[in-house]
Design goal:
Strand content: 25-35%
Shape: elongated
Largest sheet: 11 strands, mixed
Oligomer: single chain
Order of helices and strands: EHHEEEEHEEHEEEEEHEEHH
Radius of gyration: 23 Å
Structural class: alpha+beta
Number of strands: 14
């Protein structure tokens, strides 16, 4: 019995062998390639080469036996899939290509009991049906890091955003609380390498990392900083600031032992010189979470609460950042 699957816009220009490996995860790859060669898998009723790139509306037919298959279902949009209540006020941007969320601290992006597991039904309800594209996060934030996290809802959005990251066109700024008295802006340039224990170290054999620290509030023991990163390496801010004598307060993994914990690190803004239609923004900001106010008041008891409120969004976004 032949089955028919219709490719969607988010499958466009993908190789047929890549698509069928997603559609039929239970079948060995060698068997799938053999099925293509024998014509058991066809496109528009024609035998095709594994390198064939599909177009929207192509008809993929197969005559593989039912017991061989574990087909990934294409979910239709379901209006009942609402954003989880605890994240309802965290949405910063939503269009047909992207969703941007102000991630709370203390929740991992991936894995069990993660942001992705909580959001996936909602993401699936927003994305257009596809045989091969699954909506998901386009970059990562550590468990205790808060702030802007982008999710791709379409192939176009995912590709456009990823290209900007790879080509370092997006300007990324963070806010963080450091141990130490940073009196002047500091540009950090190092090479970083992940070791066998999963930690990142400064190593001449590693990838180049560039980070700039700009002091906003200081009192001799702590410095609240704006952070500009020019590269995107795992734990970049955490290891570089620690290596140069200013670890994040409470970041035990990288030498920031302190009574304030966990550390305060927040992905505050993403900026472009001009808006890209597929993405729908040229500057996006996320206010600090309420929990950050407690940390800042603990670190700077001599300061008034009003000194911090602008960073939590009460008095509007401080575009000078």
């Amino acid at each position: 019995m032949n089955r028919v699957l219709i490719t969607q816009v988010n499958d466009d220009n993908k190789r047929i062998d890549k698509i069928i490996r997603i559609l039929f995860p239970g079948i060995p790859v060698s068997a799938l390639y053999r099925a293509i060669r024998l014509g058991k898998i066809r496109v528009n009723d024609k035998k095709i080469d594994p390198s064939y790139k599909v177009r929207t509306g192509d008809r993929i037919t197969h005559s593989l036996k039912e017991e061989e298959l574990s087909v990934l279902a294409v979910r239709p949009k379901d209006s009942k899939n609402k954003v989880p209540a605890e994240l309802k006020d965290s949405i910063l941007l939503r269009n047909e290509n992207l969703l941007a969320l102000n991630k709370p601290p203390g929740i991992p992006v991936h894995g069990n009991h993660s942001l992705c597991s909580l959001l996936q039904p909602y993401l699936d309800s927003l994305a257009s049906p596809s045989l091969s594209f699954k909506p998901g996060p386009l970059h990562r934030l550590d468990k205790d890091t808060s702030g802007i996290l982008f999710f791709g809802l379409s192939l176009e959005g995912a590709r456009s955003f990823t290209d900007l990251l790879i080509n370092r066109i997006l300007e990324k700024c963070y806010l963080g609380l450091l141990l130490g008295d940073l009196k002047e802006p500091l540009l950090l340039e190092d090479r970083l390498l992940k070791n066998k224990e999963g930690l990142v170290t400064v190593d001449d054999q590693g990838k180049r990392a560039g980070t700039a620290l700009y002091p906003l509030i200081r009192n001799g023991k702590y410095t609240f900083v704006r952070i500009r990163i020019y590269t995107g390496i795992k734990h970049q801010i955490r290891i570089q600031s620690a290596h140069h004598g200013f670890p994040l307060a409470g970041d035990i993994k990288y030498g920031g032992r302190d009574r304030i914990r966990p550390y305060l690190l927040h992905a505050y803004s993403y900026s472009l010189k001009e808006e890209i239609p597929a993405l729908g923004f040229n500057r996006l900001t996320a206010p600090l979470p309420e929990s950050a106010l407690v940390k800042l008041k603990t670190a700077f008891p001599e300061r008034k609460e009003s000194d911090f409120l602008k960073f939590l969004g009460y008095n509007g976004v401080n575009d000078a950042l």
